[in-house]
Design brief:
single chain, 8-stranded antiparallel beta barrel, 10 strands, CYTH-like_dom_sf, CYTH_domain, Adenylyl_cyclase_CyaB, CYTH domain-containing protein
Length: 194
């Protein structure tokens, strides 16, 4: 997270992840492999999915028995394309079942379940994850974790794409919507090849 409560990242499919993984094994710091099950919710009184682009997501995560809750509000340009960053508020959760009961009492409805295995490395100012997502396939996420609070999200995400190309990933296909949207509305996803 570059700023407090701001996340700058890209999510892509790459033609070949092997050169990236080899590069990270040699030059990065392996942080581990985890299964993450993310359940997304929307309030009945304010349906997050009603408008496009979907900008708000409320997630409960089970990462191998460690639980968290995250709210994200993505920023978009006038054309509806992601500006590559979001406001993010995250906290640990002691009991995921109790949190689900609270959500139910508040009339928050479960809308999507994303089940993935994530391998994570850090390299310089990036956290790089290689995800294998059930029903969606394999993806790479690169997140800026540097300390520069004045960083330009567009510049940084351009550098992320250049990094992936430099290590030999081949064709890079970006989506600007994230896993839950890919699962819920696959026909609405607009991809960008870089």
């Amino acid at each position: 997270m570059a700023h407090k409560n701001i996340e700058i990242e890209i999510q892509v499919n790459v033609e070949n992840a092997k050169p990236l993984m080899a590069f990270l094994e040699k030059n990065g710091v392996f942080k581990g492999e985890k299964r993450q099950v993310d359940e997304y919710f929307s309030p009945a009184h304010r349906d997050f999915l009603a408008k496009r682009p979907v900008s708000e997501w409320l997630r409960l995560r089970d990462a191998d028995g460690k639980y968290s809750m995250t709210y994200k509000n993505w920023h978009y340009d006038k054309k509806g394309k992601s500006m590559e960053f979001c406001d993010e508020v995250e906290t640990n959760v002691e009991s995921i079942e109790q949190t689900r009961k609270i959500f139910s009492a508040l009339n928050l409805k479960s809308i999507a379940l994303v089940d993935k295995v994530r391998k994570t490395w850090t390299y310089k100012e990036y956290e790089i994850a290689v995800d294998s997502v059930k029903t969606l396939g394999d993806f790479v996420e690169v997140e800026y974790i540097g300390n520069d609070e004045n960083v330009d999200p567009e510049k940084v995400t351009g550098e992320m794409v250049a990094f992936l190309k430099k290590v030999g990933c081949g064709k890079i296909t970006r989506n600007y919507v994230g896993y839950p949207f890919l699962m819920l509305f696959p026909d609405e996803v607009k991809y960008e090849t870089q």
